[in-house]
């Protein structure tokens, strides 16, 4: 447990806030590529992005942005992890207390102090927006298939999961090879134009990608901001949606 004079958080809470796996955005292009519905929900300082299979009403991907402190980061990240793979109905039945319990070290000890528990209601507000907005998003996704000049075949959740399993079955060397192919095409040309480059040092558990900036990138102020986000989004889109890219410091 982490303790100070005012607040007590679980270790799991602290770890999630420090390294959220689901931070990022999903856009219309992501949805149209896979024939999925896009739902965006915002409550207070957190915005939730969902891609949902309109055939099964099942959540394929979940991302979030939080502009508050560590409470918003930990709760938003945990919510995304919990709802991925659930139907919209199942996800929207969750309560803030369900998310808080996921962050406990000990089942009997709260993950966050009483002074911060008001933030749990924000999660329920987000899910209410999802429930309200999904019918229109679903209709838009289905209509998009009809008006598309080429037949769009939506991959089922099971098929998408099989693709993810294929990625996770690769060795670390094979995963690095796949990631380098994307970097060579989508990322490195832009970095090299500015005198920089990037090297992949490791891939842990198929999700955590550690990189080393080279050349001018090492001293660039955006290496922990816009550049890092650009690299992460490119790899998530082209390779595996759960990747988290961290620089070697």
Structure, explained:
The protein has 249 residues and is α+β, with helices and mostly antiparallel strands. It is 47% helix and 20% strand. The chain has a three-stranded antiparallel beta sheet, with helices on both faces. α1 crosses α3, α5 packs across α6 and α8 crosses α9. The radius of gyration is 19 Å and the shape is globular. It starts with a strand and ends with a strand. The N terminus is likely disordered.
- How much of the residues is beta strand, in percent? 15-25%
Count of helix runs: 9
H/E topology pattern = EEHHEEEHHHHHHEEHE
Basic shape: globular
What CATH calls the topology of the largest domain is Sufe protein. Chain: A
> Mean pLDDT, nearest integer?
86
Low-confidence stretches: 1-5
CATH classification class of the largest domain? Alpha Beta
Order of strands across the main sheet: 3-4-5
Helix content: 40-55%
Count of separate structural domains? 2
Radius of gyration: 19 Å
């Amino acid at each position: 447990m982490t303790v100070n004079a005012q607040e007590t958080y679980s270790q799991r809470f602290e770890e999630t806030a420090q390294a959220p796996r689901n931070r990022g955005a999903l856009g219309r292009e992501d949805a149209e590529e896979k024939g999925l519905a896009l739902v965006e929900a915002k409550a207070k300082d957190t915005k939730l992005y969902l891609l949902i299979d309109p055939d099964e009403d099942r959540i394929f991907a979940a991302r979030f942005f939080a502009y508050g402190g560590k409470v918003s980061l930990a709760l938003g990240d945990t919510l995304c992890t919990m709802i991925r793979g659930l139907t919209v109905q199942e996800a929207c039945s969750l309560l803030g207390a369900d998310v808080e319990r996921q962050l406990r070290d000990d089942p009997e000890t709260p993950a966050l102090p009483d002074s911060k528990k008001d933030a749990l209601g924000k999660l329920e507000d987000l899910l209410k927006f999802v429930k309200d907005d999904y019918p229109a998003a679903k209709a838009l996704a289905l209509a998009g298939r009809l008006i598309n000049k080429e037949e769009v075949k939506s991959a089922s959740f099971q098929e998408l999961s099989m693709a993810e399993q294929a990625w996770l079955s690769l060795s670390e060397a094979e995963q690095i090879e796949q990631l380098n192919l994307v970097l060579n095409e989508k990322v490195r040309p832009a970095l090299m134009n500015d005198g920089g480059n990037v090297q992949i040092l490791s891939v842990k558990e198929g999700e955590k990608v550690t990189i080393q900036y080279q050349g001018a990138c090492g001293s660039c102020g955006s290496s922990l901001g816009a550049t890092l986000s650009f690299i992460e989004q490119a790899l998530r889109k082209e390779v595996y949606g759960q990747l988290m890219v961290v620089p070697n410091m």
